[in-house]
Design a protein that fits this description.
The chain is of the alpha/beta class. The chain has 15 helices and 11 strands. The radius of gyration is 21 Å and the shape is globular. The chain binds NADP nicotinamide-adenine-dinucleotide phosphate.
């Protein structure tokens, strides 16, 4: 088999780094052709020297002015380009077969869209693509004949379990959640948590945005919406259960009552490898389950009063339209503000709730209308202030 030619969007992040490890484990099967980052020259410089890809792109046009001298660059065959249009050209290039989208946030949608338009294979970690524009993305995939393979661990688990089976035989899927660093805590205890505390994830090592999403359980809300569109499930067919060990990545309950699960240690290299080699299963670099150390797997119901994000996920999955784009954008800005210290932890979900409820809802938006809803929600979330409780009357 000729090697599959791969581009990684967001190569400097957590998923990007894991993807590079998977590619390195299969040198006969893959050839790395292109890498992108936003503006992290330090990390990208190392990747250029190490992998010497044909293309390297920094999507932030400003990064052209900060380009460092890369010694020996003249002898390398890497071409460096800047700006989002360069990313568009990269994914459309004739010598790219598979694109891994590991960009964080709504910025990933444009790259996903361009890959799907070309009819190529998209290995998708950027769940925001489906949260924002699920119905349009799935319609485009069908129209162009592209392959859309999930990397996110829970959708990957469902995808692995379903194999070629259709969803007609599925009663429900149960997404597992680690519960994050605040599992078991009550709302009062979360009022003053700091970014440092929220960034201390018990089982997964990930980028900062998804780590905060795991602490608020917004990550599960986003996955409810992602799974709804990716698999064509009804929102009431999607359930959530907490599983602190992060070994079972999801369950599928079939109509006859049989339940299948996908298990593996918390290591993103496995879902990345599965998407890249699909449908083959070969020995790879991912951690394996240490059966001799396994003592028990535990499950508990999510406390939805403390973590109201989950309800919001179902609501957004049910209403569809512009709700996903608004939820995603509001959450991105709220997380940024929490990390910058201008918003409290519990306000993150409150902002999202308020903006989903108050936005000018459009049930069947075009892509342009979704992008306008995204912009609206960003502006509103940036200026949103928590409601001040009335002061007690002076005695
Ligand atoms: N990490 C995980 O284990 C995990 C698991 C499941 C799903 N996911 C999903 O995978 C995606 C990536 O997550 P991550 O944790 O790998 O994120 P991350 O570590 O923060 O990396 C993000 C990557 O995106 C690039 N980027 C940031 N802003 C950008 C923009 N505006 N335009 C283009 N590129 C931009 C970054 O480039 P710079 O370095 O230049 O900033 C970096 O390469 C997210 O959608 C997340 O939900 C992640």
């Amino acid at each position: 088999l000729p090697p599959r030619r791969v581009a990684i969007l967001g190569a400097t992040g957590s998923i990007g780094t894991n993807t590079l490890k998977v590619l390195a484990a299969f040198p006969q099967r893959f050839r790395l052709m292109g890498l992108t980052a936003h503006n992290n020259w330090d990390a990208l410089k190392k990747l250029i020297l190490q992998h010497q890809p044909k293309w390297c792109i920094l999507t932030d046009p400003e990064s052209q002015s900060t380009m460092p001298t890369i010694s020996g660059m003249a002898h390398l065959k890497t071409n460096v380009y800047f700006g989002p249009d360069a990313l568009n050209k990269l994914v459309r290039a004739a010598d790219i077969d598979i694109v891994v989208n590991a960009i964080v946030g709504a910025a990933g949608l444009q790259g996903s869209w361009a890959v799907l338009e070309t009819g190529k294979t998209l290995a998708l970690a950027n769940k925001e693509t489906l949260v924002m524009a699920g119905p349009l993305v799935m319609a485009l995939t069908k129209k162009s004949g592209a392959r859309l393979l999930p990397i996110d661990s829970e959708p990957s688990a469902i995808f692995q379990i379903l194999a070629e089976r259709g969803v007609e035989s599925v009663e429900r899927v149960v997404l597992t959640a680690s519960g994050g660093p605040f599992r078991g805590k009550k709302r009062d205890a979360l009022a003053k948590v700091t970014p440092e505390e929220a960034l201390r994830h018990p089982t997964w090592k990930m980028g900062p945005k998804i780590t905060i999403d795991s602490a608020t359980l917004m990550n599960k809300a986003l996955e409810i919406v992602e799974a709804r569109w990716l698999f064509g499930l009804r929102p009431e067919q999607i359930a959530v259960i907490l599983h602190p060990e992060s070994i079972v990545h999801s369950f599928v309950e079939f109509k006859d009552g049989s339940v299948l699960a996908q298990l593996s240690p918390p290591d993103m290299q496995l879902p990345i490898q599965y998407a890249l080699l699909h449908p083959e299963r070969l020995p790879g670099p991912a951690k394996r389950l240490a059966w001799e150390d396994l003592r028990g797997l535990t499950f508990e119901q999510a406390d939805q009063e403390t973590f109201p994000a989950i309800q919001l996920g179902w609501e957004v999955a049910r209403r569809g339209g512009t709700c996903g784009a608004v939820l995603n954008a509001a959450n991105e800005i709220a997380v940024e503000r929490f990390l910058a210290g201008t918003l409290a932890f519990l306000d993150i979900v409150d902002v999202c709730h308020a903006l989903v409820a108050s936005h000018p809802f459009n049930p069947e938006p075009t892509l342009t209308e979704l992008l306008a809803a995204d912009r609206w929600a960003r502006e509103e979330a940036a200026r949103w202030q928590p409601r001040k409780l009335p002061r007690p009357p002076k005695s």
